[in-house]
Structures are given as structure tokens and as C-alpha cells.
User: What shape does this take?
Amino acid sequence: MSYRAWFQCINPECGQTYPLNSIVYQCKRCDSLLEVQHDLKALKRRSAASWKKLFEKRYMSNEWPYGSGVWGKKEWILPEIADDNIVSLYEGGTNLFWAERFAKVLGLNDLWIKLCGNTHSGSFKDLGMTVLVSQVKQMISEGAPIKAVVCASTGDTSAALATYCAAAGIQSIVLLPRGKISIAQLIQPISNGALVLYLDTDFDGCMRLVQEITKDETLYLANSMNSLRVEGQKTVGVEIVQQFDWKAPDVIIIPGGNLGNVSALGKGLMMMKDLGLISKLPRIVVAQAERANPLYRAYLRNFETFKPIHARKTLASAIQIGNPVSIQKAIRTLKQFNGIVEQATEEELANAAALGDRTGMFNCPHTGVALAVLIKLLKAGKIDKSERVVVISTAHGLKFVEMKVKYHQRKLDFPCRHVNQPIELPARLDAVKDALHKALKKRIRFDV
Ligand SMILES: *Cc1c(COP(=O)(O)O)cnc(C)c1O
Ligand SMILES: [Zn+2]
Assistant: This one.
């Protein structure tokens, strides 16, 4: 069976196409973003039941490269790539965590957290990077003049790019906003041998520079305006549905910054609907930090206009973005999925993340934004307690320990409601017994 895919301009009045091995990130005719389009007619020749069976057979198996959560769906991603050129670190296949205790605090009974951070570089960015770096390897093998792969990043894209490039033996270059990413995020690309450019600007500033330098075709652009990333990331929705035995949940909440991931989530779910694997679409909620909320502001204007903003410093540093590249795709997704956008303050996101931790998670601040938005939408009656809700956790909490340390030391400028502090005491039995006696008298109770 031969399946095909190509780049296509997302502007419906243009629709220009380009082969996947051309070095192009935006439409040359109208400047719009591109997306990967698939030959749906060919894909439809296989029944929905047969796709499900194939994906189940491959899921988490040892059969290279199909055990990867991304490459197990290869025909839907990059059907024509040679297996030899696939650069996979067995990304995807992440735990769908049943948040029973957190849900009880909220009065919900069907809440799940998709732990996308439980993967090689610690964030969902691996899902897209495996696809992009594999395509680069294929293009280099065909003689393309690519010398290095470059990205601007709020910390997780650069970590993923650096590790996949290191595994493939390709040079990576990352542009990072100085002081605006965590130490773990800085040391990842350093360790993986990337050329690290640490710049006195914010993410939007790095993004402008990277678009300039990648006009040189020997430097290939790895930001999510390159729609190869979106192709890999779209498996997250497919995987969630598969983990529920092919039933779509009612609501999916996802934190949004540059808005590539929400576009990807929608694309995967829509493909499942087009190919008959699901009949109903979930509602999609984008959660933004109040200090970096351009999409939320546009949502309040019914998406009639969009204005970039200056994003202010937020604990949710990976979504501190004022001018999201994938804005048009995200708005399209929200319209298709009966979408909602809600925001969370610093206090709300930090307390929600900490409460999640107290019920067995280990959240990054972006997941905190999504959990805070869940709490707000429940209170507002926009999500019903009977609904099945999935929160997409975008990164591992271990990448963001500085924020957690500050929280539990009460060094943030708002009340930290779920603080847990170590008890310092001399190493004597009587002191330990006394401390235990006092501590165990208290009952643990949480509320929101
Ligand atoms: C990249 C990232 C996001 C935002 O994803 P976008 O595609 O930019 O909207 C959210 N959380 C984490 C941890 C990220 O690394
Ligand atoms: Zn175009």
C-alpha cells in the first residue's frame, strides 16, 4: 500500500503544495503557515477497525521503530520515510495517570492526566522532534546541504532538538533567552553538545533572530512553525483515545504558548474522525498564564482580531510567549472543537500545581496552569462534574525544581497554600519522637 504526504499552505484561498523534502517553512506565495497533508483517500482504504488493530499490535512493542508512540502511527505521520533514517528514542507511550485523589478534592470523578513529560527529554517536544530530525536525516542522505538544525526555545524545544540531533550525529544550534529558562533546561542542550547561544532577550526576540538566520538553507529551522513538528505531536490525541479503548474523552485541557501543540492535538483528533476511528470530538480547552495571554484576549473578542502582546515574566516560563507563531492554526482548532480559552494567575497556577503534587503528581508549572483552569471552569459550570476530562501535562516537574523550592520556602509573593517544609532538628531519638508526635496529630485536608 502506498501512502503519500506533502506540505500544503493553510490559507484556503491559496493551498499551494510543496514536497516534504523541500526546505520551506511558510508559503512562498502568501506567507501563511504550512501543514502536512495526507492522501486521505488512500488511508481510507484501510478500515477504522484495521487501523486500530495495527496500532494496538505495535503499541509499546520492541519492533523497531513501531514501538515508539509516534512511529507506531507512521502511515499517518511520514509514510514515505525510510526506516533507516528514523531517529527515535522511543518517545510517546506515556502514562495516562488516573487522578483519583485530585478529582475527589474537586468533586469530579473521571479525571486523567496525560504525562507527556515522562519521556526521553522530559517534555512533549520529543513527539515532534523525532519527526523533524528524522526528516532532516532523510534529506541529508538525499544530498540536501543542511549543516545544522536551529531553534529558538523557552527551554524544552532546545532540549529535545539537542538530544535527537546528538543521537543522529547532526549539529544542533539553540537560541535561548538568558535567565528565562530553568537550570535543567539550560544544561540539557549543553550536555548534548548543542551550540548554545544565550541571548539577552525573551523568546519572541530569539524567534525573530532564528527566522532571519534560517533564510540560509544550510541552517534548518526546528521551531513549530515547521509543521513537521506538529505531525509528531498530533499523536498525543490519538494515543489518549487509544488508551481509553478508542473512546474520545469529553474535554481535553492543554497549556498553550506558541500554540503548536493545541493545533497538533486537534489535527490528530480530526484525522481519527475523518478516518472513522471516532465519531464524536472532545471539547478542547487552551490554558494560558495570565501574564502571557494573547490567545485568551482574542477569545474574549470572539477571535475577530488578534494582537500580539508583550509577555510578562511568569513561573510558567515555557509559555511566556506574546506573539504565538501558530495563532491561525490554533484559532481554527478552537472553532472546530467548540473550544474554550481560560487563564490562570501566578497564584492560581502555583497552588494548583502544588495541590496536584500533594495528590501524587509531580507537576511542572504549565501543568499547573491547566489544572488551575480546570478548577476555574468547574466552578463556573463550564465543565460538568460528570464529564471525562483529560489534562495534558506537558513536561516533567523535575525540570522545574527551582519554582517548587521557592514555593515550599514561601519565597513567592502570594500565599502558598500547600507548603510542606522539612523539620530541622538534632539527630537525637527524643527530638525525633517529639517531632513525630506533633506532626502526626494533624490531619491532612485539602480544598480549592
Ligand atoms: C512548549 C511547551 C508548552 C507550549 O506548547 P506550544 O506548542 O508552544 O503552545 C507548554 N508546556 C511546556 C512544558 C512546553 O515545553
Ligand atoms: Zn499560500
